[in-house]
Specification:
Layout (H helix, E strand, L loop, with lengths): L2 E3 L2 H8 L2 H10 E10 L2 H14 L4 E9 L2 E8 L2 E9 L5 E3 L1 H13 L2 E9 L5 H10 L3 E3 L11 E2 L2 E9 L3 E8 L2 E8 L14 H18 L3 H10 L6 H10 L7 E5 L8 H6 L3 E5 L4 E2 L9 H20 L12 E6 L2 E6 L25 H5 L6 H17 L4 H14 L1 H9 L3 H16 L3 H15 L12 H8 L11 H10 L6
Parallel strand pairs: 1-5
Antiparallel strand pairs: 1-8, 2-7, 3-4, 3-7, 4-5, 5-6, 9-10, 10-11, 11-12, 12-14, 13-14, 15-16, 16-17
Length: 507
């Protein structure tokens, strides 16, 4: 098992530079290994064996390549100093620990070619050499989440690979007695550093409530849905509405089980042995953000309708998603058409009021009204987020002015999140930020600001007819994206009535 140097993130940024890669190659002694391999264990064994045969002052430059992409590792002794991975399809480059995880994933999934060169430490580029020296006395175990679980067995599921990571959870692929499953594990700490599974029992309980709520949604009987609609005062066409809503359960990734420890974790070791796990349906598809640019107008409309239906079912049962975005929608092709499967519900009760949590907000898809009013558990929050997602699907571009608006709002309510958003704010959005800054400076009342912001949005980024869509869809989109609740759909149930008409469905 390798160790990961604490300096891996800084070293990897240098290693990603093609000139640095060339420098290392030119200063390497020679190729010391070239072979086709299959599996993570074989890769690790080869690197460790080669390291032992070399002098202690030599490092290894390792290149692993296959159809999925190309990974580069700089290994000194038993420590990974730097890691870079370039995706073979998208060209996206990962660095640091994320790159190392991805390299291990692709090696596990398919045969690869590994090339290893030896390079003296004193011949490494100066910036990397200094990081190597620091890393020799400051290395931490690589056997930590989520990598520590690869190849192990959790609650009867053999962990095959890491599917992804979110702000509060890891998602792994596990093999059980009945096939493949997605294992969602609550992180020990959030990406912002706040305690979750270790040191925060409340986070574990919220995680369990989320899973329980998703089970209720995906396995809700017609009787339960009917009772929920009757409680809302729905009587006309009740049976048809129940049948339609329960059908949307198939557009939510199912939850089959929850494993939650009874006692609090005293340390990381206890957490690693029995982490909080939600067992979910494994979907052999991709997230919507990976393909949204290539979705046809009809499929874009169908996806929005199906996501709205999934949200309508959740809202009927009293829960919200509150993090709707393309990254939380899986798409699979069924009978020639794309089908949406929504996941990662926060599953907060829709009547709950509380300030937004950093880990649960995606800045680009946040609802300005909810942020400015200190609460986010309004069902219309989901409608607004879905509207932003629909905008991207319909127009094949990002809503830059609305990005700028969210940035300005977050600077006032969650400065820490605005700071991270500002670092990745596209130039097209930056030109609008000054307009909203001036508007915000002149108005101290949130509602007045939002009304004025809506007028400004209509002037600088008006909603025109989306290509290939019915004429009335722009009216639906405008109502989804209204900044004030009196002009927006109250919830996804109300939205579904209008969206259904596009498919000849009466709700």
């Amino acid at each position: 098992m390798f160790r990961i140097a604490t300096t891996i993130e800084d070293a990897s940024k240098h290693l990603a530079d093609p000139l640095v890669q060339l420098d290392i190659t030119m200063n390497s002694r020679t190729y010391v290994y070239h072979k086709r391999i299959s599996g993570r264990e074989e890769l690790e064994k080869i690197i460790l064996d080669v390291s032992k045969k070399l002098q202690s002052n030599a490092c290894l430059s390792v290149v692993v390549s296959n159809k999925a992409g190309e990974g580069r590792l700089l290994v000194c002794g038993d420590a990974v100093i730097g890691a870079v991975f370039r995706d073979g399809k998208s060209g996206v480059v990962l660095t640091g620990e994320r790159a190392y995880i991805r390299i291990l994933e692709v090696v596990t999934q398919q045969d690869s070619i590994v090339d290893i060169m030896a390079v003296e430490r004193d011949k490494l580029p100066a910036d990397i050499r200094s990081l190597v020296e620091r890393a020799r006395v400051a290395a931490i175990p690589a056997g930590r989440p989520p990598m520590v679980w690869i190849g192990s067995v959790l609650y009867g599921f053999k962990v095959e690979r890491i599917i992804g990571e979110g702000g509060i959870s890891y998602v792994l692929e596990g093999i059980g007695a009945n096939g493949r499953f997605a294992l969602k594990i609550l992180r020990e700490r959030s990406r912002f550093g706040s305690p979750l599974a270790v040191g925060n029992r409340g986070a574990i309980e919220s995680f369990a409530r989320m899973a329980t709520a998703m089970m209720k949604m995906t396995f809700a009987s017609r009787g339960v849905v009917e009772a929920a609609l009757e409680e809302r005062g729905v009587t006309e066409g009740l049976r048809d509405k129940v049948r339609l809503l329960t059908g949307f359960a198939d557009n939510i990734i199912r939850v089959y089980g929850v494993y939650i420890p009874r006692e609090e974790y005293r340390n990381l070791d206890e957490y690693v042995k029995t982490p909080p796990v939600v067992v979910m349906e494994y979907v052999d598809g991709v997230t919507l953000d990976r393909i949204e640019a290539n979705v046809s107008p009809f499929e874009a409309r169908k996806i929005v309708y199906e996501v709205a239906g999934a949200l309508a079912l959740a809202h009927t049962l009293g829960f919200g998603h509150f993090d709707v975005k393309p990254q939380n929608v899986m798409v699979v092709r069924v009978s020639g058409f794309l089908k949406a499967k929504v996941f990662d519900f926060t599953a907060l009760p829709i009547d709950r009021r509380r300030p937004p949590a950093l880990e649960e907000i995606t800045p680009e898809y946040a609802d300005p009204y909810s942020l400015l009013h200190g609460a986010r558990a309004y069902p219309s929050y989901d409608v607004y987020s879905l509207g932003l997602m629909a905008y991207r699907l319909f127009y094949k571009r990002r809503p830059y002015a609305r990005l700028a608006l969210n940035y300005v709002v977050l600077k006032r309510v969650v400065p820490k999140l605005a700071e991270s958003m500002g670092r990745v704010l596209p130039p097209e959005a930056q030109e609008y930020t000054r307009k909203f800054e001036r508007l915000a400076a002149s108005m101290h009342d949130p509602d007045s600001f939002l009304r004025a912001a809506e007028e400004l949005l209509e002037a600088i980024e008006p909603l025109g007819p989306p290509p290939g869509q019915p004429e009335n869809i722009v009216d639906i989109l405008r109502k989804m994206l209204a900044l004030t609740p009196e002009r927006r759909y109250r919830d996804a149930i109300e939205l579904l009535k209008d969206l259904g008409s596009l498919f000849g469905v009466t709700f």
